[in-house]
Amino acid sequence: MIVHRVFPESQVCQVCVKLNPSGRIHVIFLVEEPEAQEEQSSKEPKKAFGVDLGIARLATLSDGRFLENPKPLERSLERIRVLQRTLSRKRFLSKNWLKTKRKLAKEHEHVGDFRRDLFFKLGFLLAQEYDVLVLEDLNAQGLIQKAETRKRRLRLYDFSFSELRRILEWEFRKREKLVLPVPSYNSSRECFRCGGINQNLTLEDRVFHCAHCGFTLDRDLSASLVLLKRAGWVPPFRCACGAPPNTSATLLRVGGGWARWSVEAGSPVREGGVAHRSHSMEMCLKPMMRSFSLVRFNHLEHLSVILFVMHVRAKYMGEEIQRV
């Protein structure tokens, strides 16, 4: 059992039990905390950065660093297809059918856990370094509908922009830092220096060149600078390699999931000497209890988990345990 944080038992007002299709059980406590007094901080934000989100590069920062998209769904797609074909050949609700279905659910759950783990670590590291987050207000559903090929639609689904944005905003606002969403219209085609629009820029072009002033820069880096400029933050800028933005600088490639901080997806992030592991965080305000009579358990440990959940609900919610 993994406990995220310690809280007093007297402040628990609601308990939510969630059973995933893979068999993993979450017990979520709704705790009532006293209202904190708002203190007006005289500290003004000093460091701001813009982030351009994409498919090939998950995030490109305005300081010249970028993170490649690990594409967890695309990496696990072949195994998911094999499990789906195997499941289709099994007899419905048989023992082997339930076993294969649970394996398939675990594979999907692994993809989601890998993605959330990377997003939480990315948000934690950026919130530790910057005071203002400038994020493009991207319409992911519109991009999916406009996708011409099936492969591009799959990569957009794997992109999960809404979840990345939610986690980044949560990490910054938890530390009382600013989050500024700006319009993303023509952010890749607009010139950072003069504001001209390059209408001939296509998706295959990875370098932005302005015909008006001759400004040349990487396409994603230029878009992140434009977003930062639209928010009114234009600090002195130099690329990670030390070159000014008016040259075609080579970006600093940070591979392996922000190797600069020695962090990879699946490894703990240390804060104050304590290792914290990013797990799935589900906010649920309504009590939910699945009917366990419809689930077949192959091991006695699952039964012990059910008894533990019933004990928790009886302790915190005052429910009586019916003995069979």
From TrEMBL:
Keyword Iron belongs to the record: no
MF terms in GO: DNA binding
Alphabetically ordered keywords of this record: DNA recombination, DNA-binding, Transposition
One Pfam family named in its UniProt record: Cas12f1-like_TNB
Keyword DNA-binding recorded: yes
Occurrences of domain Cas12f1-like TNB (ranges): 161-225
Superkingdom: Archaea
InterPro entries for this protein: Cas12f1-like_TNB, Transposase
Transmembrane segments: none
GO biological process per UniProt: DNA recombination; transposition
Record-annotated Probable transposase IS891/IS1136/IS1341 domain positions: 36-144
Family: In the C-terminal section; belongs to the transposase 35 family.
Protein name as annotated: Transposase
Organism of origin: Candidatus Marsarchaeota G2 archaeon BE_D
Taxonomic placement: Archaea, Candidatus Marsarchaeota, Candidatus Marsarchaeota group 2
